[in-house]
Write a structure and sequence with these properties.
By secondary structure, the chain is α+β, with helices and mostly antiparallel strands. The protein folds into two domains: about 180 residues, 2-Layer Sandwich (Murine Class I Major Histocompatibility Complex, H2-DB, Chain A, domain 1), CATH 3.30.500.10; about 90 residues, Immunoglobulins (Immunoglobulin-like), CATH 2.60.40.10. InterPro entries: Ig-like_dom (IPR007110), Ig-like_dom_sf (IPR036179), Ig-like_fold (IPR013783), Ig_C1-set (IPR003597), MHC_class-I_related (IPR050208), MHC_I-like_Ag-recog (IPR011161), MHC_I-like_Ag-recog_sf (IPR037055), MHC_I/II-like_Ag-recog (IPR011162). Keywords: Glycoprotein, Membrane, Signal, Transmembrane, Transmembrane helix. Pfam families: C1-set (PF07654), MHC_I (PF00129).
Length: about 350
């Protein structure tokens, strides 16, 4: 059975960097959902969202800098996406209406999902297309691009299969797009992506620590794409104990960040030189290595002895004087019933109120 889930590709392989790239169109149409777009579409390249469209705005929004550059160079590319999204919106709505009637469903909430696109291996040159639908959270129908026939995993989709199998022109058009057009586009996207990567350069790697006894965090930020790895080594061997690895997270500018913590509680001072943090990225030959060095660690922690005694005493004395002044003023106002400045001010405020 074909499971209708977004394919999670391997992000990183230590032995050999992956060379597969992916272009995915994720489309969702819904009915009966208030205050929610009836249609939404996203384009993803190597699992990164690069474009978005919904039925409320009816415009395609680029999400990363390199796709903005591509659209600037080729405005018709954006127009094609907008027209396709609008076309799919009408098709999806008609499909939901048809399924609701044919399956004798109520007029409640119904969702039709569509995921399609291609994968391309830039080493072997091989490409593979995929095209499938889900309905109300379940697998519904998928296209076998080799046999040019629709596969219905459930009886409810059999009538749809027969109808779509009979549309030979659509079948051949789909095969042409998913086996030829989209791989060409994906190669073009990868070229722009790589140029962006070259402009971005290597990430910034820092060693961070909260206190002298806490773990040391190796933090890398500003890399693209997200097929990268970050790990601690000792004597050239990767550590799997006393380390805590975080997930790869997105930055606001479309690049990524990640971190890995090292527990230093059992590391002797003379052994620090044996440790280093290694950043590796797909497509980049050389590793970025950062030695575990106290002088390189960034922290905002200041020991108590680091505060000037005079400044501390001055602050304490100042606070005491302020408390004495406030206490004295409070006692004075309690004893003095006719504190005219306060009464006059209150009265003036009341009289000046235009209401």
């Amino acid at each position: 059975m074909i499971k209708f889930v977004i394919v999670v590709f391997t992000l990183f392989c230590r032995v050999a960097f992956p060379v597969k790239h992916s272009l995915v169109f994720s489309l969702t149409a819904s009915s009966g959902v208030p205050d929610f777009p009836e249609y939404m579409g996203s384009a993803l390249v190597d699992e990164v969202q690069v474009g978005y469209f919904d039925s409320n705005t009816k415009t395609a929004e680029p999400k990363v800098d390199w796709i903005r550059k591509l659209i600037k160079d080729d405005p018709q590319h954006l127009e094609w996406y907008v027209n396709k999204c609008i076309e799919h919106q009408h098709f999806f709505k008609a499909t939901i209406d048809s399924l609701v009637k044919r399956l004798n469903q109520t007029e409640g909430v119904h969702i039709l999902q569509h995921m399609s696109g291609c994968e391309w291996d830039d080493e072997t040159g091989e490409s593979r297309g995929f095209h499938q639908y889900g309905y109300d959270g379940e697998d519904f129908i998928a296209l076998d691009l080799q046999m040019l026939t629709w596969i219905a995993p459930k009886p409810q989709a059999f009538i749809t299969k027969l109808r779509w199998d009979a549309d030979k022109a659509r079948l051949h058009r789909d095969k042409y797009y998913y086996m030829h057009i989209y791989p060409v586009w994906l190669k073009k996207y990868v070229q722009y992506l790589r140029s962006f990567l070259q402009r971005t350069g290597l990430p910034s790697v820092s060693l961070l620590q909260k206190t002298p006894s806490s773990q040391v965090t190796c933090h890398a930020t500003g890399f693209y794409p997200d097929r990268a790895d970050l790990f601690w080594r000792k004597d050239g061997e990767e550590l799997h104990e006393d380390v805590d690895k975080g997930e790869i997270l997105p930055n606001h500018d479309g690049t990524f960040q990640m971190s890995v913590d090292l527990n230093i509680s059992s590391i002797a001072a003379e052994d620090w030189k044996k440790y280093d943090c290694v950043f590796q990225m797909s497509g980049v030959k050389d590793d970025l290595i950062t030695k575990l060095d106290k002088s390189m660690i960034r922290t905002n922690w200041v020991s108590p002895s680091g505060f000037p005694a005079g400044a501390v005493i001055g602050v304490v004395v100042g606070l005491l004087l302020l408390l004495l002044c406030i206490s004295g003023l409070f006692i004075w106002r309690k004893k003095t019933n006719g504190f005219r400045p306060a009464n006059t001010s209150d009265s003036a405020d009341r009289h000046s109120d235009p209401n």
